[in-house]
Amino acid sequence: MTHFSFDIVGFDLDGTLLDTSGDLTAAVNHALALANRPALSVEQVKPMIGGGARHMLKQGLTATGGYDEAMLDRLHAALLAYYEAHICVLTRPYPGVIEALDALAARGVTIGIVTNKIERFARTVLDELGLTDRFACILGGDTMAEGKPSPMPIHEMVRQCAVVADAKRAGAQGAAPRAAFVGDSIFDIQAGQAAGLPTIACSFGFLMQPVDELGAEAVIDGFDALIPALDDLARRTAA
Ligand SMILES: O=C(O)COP(=O)(O)O
Ligand SMILES: [Mg+2]
């Protein structure tokens, strides 16, 4: 008999649930072109994603000749305007995401999102893909006073998901709901661990360094591995 013992699973968005690299690369290249910089490839941009759009643009400008703050402010605004207008052209869920979210829902697991994307943009992409209603909460980089790697938005995600999880587990009062966090960047793993959650790293995401160096409690190579990894992690981290 297997009891699925995480009540709450939090997910990062970019590079974890969704491959947003094509649309983010187009937005960076739009900003770089305004500064007469050469375009970057999707593979060059991927490791620049995960710390929010401004972080990504800084990296793009550094890779193509440097920047000053005034230039960064101007191009950041242009990047966001372009991205908002072209936010879901190439963006798709990774293979197996829908099936994995269905399986979690069937098990009564409450799921939330903590991304460093602007919350409004995260909601727009998820709306366009018809996924918004699956999540008990969607927290962006601008939702709380601090974004990942701060544990602040992870704590808030757990707090909001727990309200839903507790309502589902009406008979199981007393024990706090158990939560895990799934992400692709060092910011995700640091934020999750700082909030006291076991973490799972996605090897297919926008890695800033080799996945084994992230220090996550588990690694998955695809969404077909998510449920077994969560089951295993729940067993290993049971009190
Ligand atoms: O860098 C971003 O814009 C968002 O990245 P995240 O969804 O991986 O947190
Ligand atoms: Mg990410």
UniProtKB/TrEMBL annotation:
One GO MF term attached to the UniProt entry: phosphoglycolate phosphatase activity
Reaction equations catalysed: 2-phosphoglycolate + H2O = glycolate + phosphate
Keyword match Hydrolase: yes
Active site: 12 (nucleophile)
Pathway assignment: Organic acid metabolism; glycolate biosynthesis; glycolate from 2-phosphoglycolate: step 1/1
Residues that, per the record, bind Mg(2+): 12, 14, 184
Cofactor(s) of this protein: Mg(2+)
BP term (GO), one: glycolate biosynthetic process
Xref: InterPro entries: HAD-like_hydrolase_sf (IPR050155), HAD-like_sf (IPR036412), HAD_2 (IPR041492), HAD_sf (IPR023214), PGP-like_dom2 (IPR023198), PGPase_prok (IPR037512)
Keyword presence, Magnesium: yes
PANTHER family in alphabetical order: PHOSPHOGLYCOLATE PHOSPHATASE (PTHR43434:SF1)
Family note: Belongs to the HAD-like hydrolase superfamily. CbbY/CbbZ/Gph/YieH family.
Protein name: Phosphoglycolate phosphatase
The organism of origin for this protein: Sphingomonas aerolata
